[in-house]
Amino acid sequence: MPLPALVRQLGAWITSVSEALHPDCFAFVMAAGIISNALFAEAYHTLSGLLLDVNVLSYGWLAILTALRSIRFPHLVWLDLTSPYCVFSFFTLVASNDVLGAGFYLRGVASVPLDLWILALFTWLILIYFSFGVLSFRNGAHQADVIRGGWLLAIVGTESLVTLGALIAHEAGAFSPTIFVLSHMLWGIGIGLYAILIVLIANRIFYFDINPSDITPMLWVVMGAAAISTNAGSELLLAKSGMSSLEAIRPFIEGVTLSTWAWATWWTPLLLLFELWKHGVHRMPLTYTPMLWPMVFPLGMYSLATLRFSLAADFPVLRVAALAMLWIALAAWGVTSLGLVIVSWRSFRNFSRSNVADRA
């Protein structure tokens, strides 16, 4: 095929990919980023650096696709934004900025993490009220399912701001106290939202009929939200704000952080049981879907949260669990990435064949 024709075909395929882009696409950045950060914390710097490189390229690529979709298909973006089922997926935009910012901070970069945190905070301020407004005014009895809707991504986005905020606060000069206070406030908001939404999810799971199709990878965000709340609380404990009002609530933060870590740990075997019931008992095939990334992210998040909590609580035995989960998360990321590559190649190949057939 001549080069100009190939370029036109590639451009048309990219446009089709942007049209089908899911609002939680930045979960890929979250998954790769959190595993990279956990590897760095465990001193696997080379492997961590490779994942960071992948993450930076992926962040840029997804930003381009998102911008293209907003320009070429604004009606589809608006449909997602006004859907109670989809709107919370946009919180992956918030969390991906914070996870990527934390990766840069770990490597001694000062300015970029602060910029990413401000961008994430601005996005969160818009989404947090818009999303719950959509949930309040547009949700009907059958429009959103708490199991499949990813509502807890709002908590993931909120607590990600706390995690990065606690890291960069000391670098913010005169704004340091403001960021520390805001981070503590956001941590409390995230905990409050988790307490509300987890009751709805537990009620849906334990008191209504469950079909195999109800058990989606998005359900793992239940564990991921608890894990990132643990990580956020641990970062607040390790940050040493130096402000007397904030230091006074450290025992409360430590107690709640222990509870969220225990809650994340409790959910993990139950979620595995659900997957066994779906794929083992009902024999539903396990195939690649973009929703797998919100499943990979909690695995990496649990590893890093366990490590940070072991440092905050001075409980080093937890590092064994953190390291074990890290390798599980890395393996899950590798397998899911392979699925993404295969699906992307098949998509491009089928698109090319379709174009050739149309011209013929």
What's the level 1 CATH class?
A: Mainly Alpha
Helix content: over 70%
H/I helix tally: 13
Low confidence ranges: none
Mean pLDDT metric: 90
- Can you name the CATH architecture? Alpha/alpha barrel
How far is the first residue's CA from the last residue's CA?
15 Å
Series of H and E elements: HHHHHHHHHHHHH
Biggest sheet, open or closed, and with what strands and sense?
Answer: none
Please give a structural write-up.
The model has no long low-confidence stretch (mean pLDDT 90). This protein is mostly helical and 360 residues long. Helix 2 packs antiparallel against helix 13 and helix 5 (91-106) packs antiparallel against helix 6 (111-138). It is globular, with a radius of gyration of 21 Å. It is built from 13 helices and no strands. The protein has a single domain (3-359), classed as Alpha/alpha barrel (Glycosyltransferase). 41% of the residues are buried.
Observed structural traits:
Glycosyltransferase; 360 residues
Brief characterization of the structure:
The protein is mainly alpha-helical. The chain is built from 13 helices and no strands.
Any chance you could write out the topology, listing elements then pairs?
Blueprint: H1 3-19, H2 27-41, H3 45-72, H4 74-81, H5 91-106, H6 111-138, H7 153-168, H8 176-207, H9 221-239, H10 244-247, H11 250-281, H12 293-312, H13 318-359
